[in-house]
Amino acid sequence: MHANLPLQGEFAVVANQDDQTLSVVPIGAATVATTVQLDLAPRAVGAAPNSDTVVAADADPASHMLAVATLNSSAEAGTVDAGNRPDTLGTPPLIGTNAPVLLISDDDRSVRSLDPQTRAFGAPQPLGAGPHAVSFGRGASMLAPQVYVSNAGDGTVTVLDEKATTVQKTLQVGGRPVGVVRTIDSHVWVADADRGSVSMLDPDTGDVLETIAVGPHLTGLSATPDAHYLTLSSSDPEHALYMVDLVASMLGQDNTAVRSLTVESGVLALATGAEITRAYATTGDGHLLYWDLTTNSIAQSIGVGRNPVGLALGLVEPSGSVAVTTGAGGTGTGATGTTPAGGTGAGAAGGTGTGP
Question: In whole angstroms, what is the distance from residue 5 CA to residue 72 CA?
Fold first, then answer.
């Protein structure tokens, strides 16, 4: 039953709110290895670095609880009172970091670090008005690792140090930013739901350096570790997923730079991991999709649980192994958190690709 346990390598963990479970999918096996029953209905999930330990946030609006689970034992290990409602959880990059899991609360507009092993919280740091999305920018050449949080309610991006102990700056970006990423080439990209676009920002001032039109109803943003692709989710099932080929855009191939994918049941959550040509999404009809970005098609569709609103990518390095980076020296996840689906349906969790 648990043939792919203990976990070795990259895995996806899906938070199934209606089932009160977590589905664990080793990326190479492309099948559910185990299902972890929780005592709460998870709305978001975060994975600790190089560990089978994950944290899930309770969907109950009145709850402050987090569940801690150890995936190799297929069991909930306990709960933690966060002190306020946990709305979004941030998963650190897969390799090359000691960054903590991050906990964001819309109620008090704060972000805190969480060590899932000791269950200790860091001091809360102030954010702008939510909803929020969070991502980690890995260190590159002269650039230090940082945390980026988009604040959709007031058109800002908060920049913090890797451990989320200090707010370093607040960028005034305008619009309704629903996702932010810093790619391995040190560019900062923000998805604006009001304009239906992604913009590259000056990382010091927040000034817009380049804008690429994508489409309406954007809900989330992530990036591949080599900075080749941006991936976005939308609440429109006909264009549920968007892919921006940054290399094609740089070469002036605007007719192929932006492509979309239909997912009839809608997309609930989106993430990228270590693979440079793949992203992952969960759907309204209970599937985890492997999205091949080179062909803009669904390579795998794996049944998980009901209402899989949360998704995180984690990694357990095999004992004695040497970490291997991918792409342009970078590995890690894109922005994390749930993305509200705009459509329902019971069709197969497949996709149909379109042009711009």
Answer: 6
CA–CA distance, 140 with 161 (Å, rounded to integer): 14
What residues have CB less than 8 Å from 173, skipping those under 6 apart? 155, 156, 157, 190, 192, 199, 201, 206, 208
To the question of pTM greater than 0.70 for the whole model, the response is yes
pLDDT at 260 over 70: yes
Higher pLDDT: 341 or 18? It is 18
For the residues 221-249, what does the mean pLDDT come to?
Answer: 97
Buried b (16+ CB within 10 A) or exposed e, 312-340: bbbbbbeeeeeeebbbeebbbbbbbbbbe
Rg of the chain's alpha carbons, rounded to an integer?
Answer: 18
According to the model, what pLDDT value does residue 98 have?
78
Quick one: which of 160, 99, 170 has its CA closest to 129? 170
* DSSP letter (8 states) at residue 140: B
Q: Which residue ranges make up each domain of the chain?
A: 9-345
- Give yes or no for a cis peptide into 42 (omega within 30° of 0): no
In this predicted structure, the answer to whether residue 323 has a pLDDT above a threshold of 70 is no
Residue 255's pLDDT band (boundaries 50, 70, 90)?
A: confident
Mean pLDDT calculated for residue range 72-100: 91
DSSP secondary-structure letter at 71?
G
Sign (positive/negative) of CA torsion 16, 22, 23, 24?
A: positive
**The domain 9-345 is classified under which CATH number: 3.90.420.10, 3.40.50.720, 2.130.10.10, 3.30.470.30?**
2.130.10.10
Q: Enumerate residues 6+ apart whose C-beta is below 8 A from 283.
A: 263, 265, 266, 267, 268, 289, 308, 341, 349
- Among 249, 263, 161, which residue's Cα sits nearest to residue 210? 249
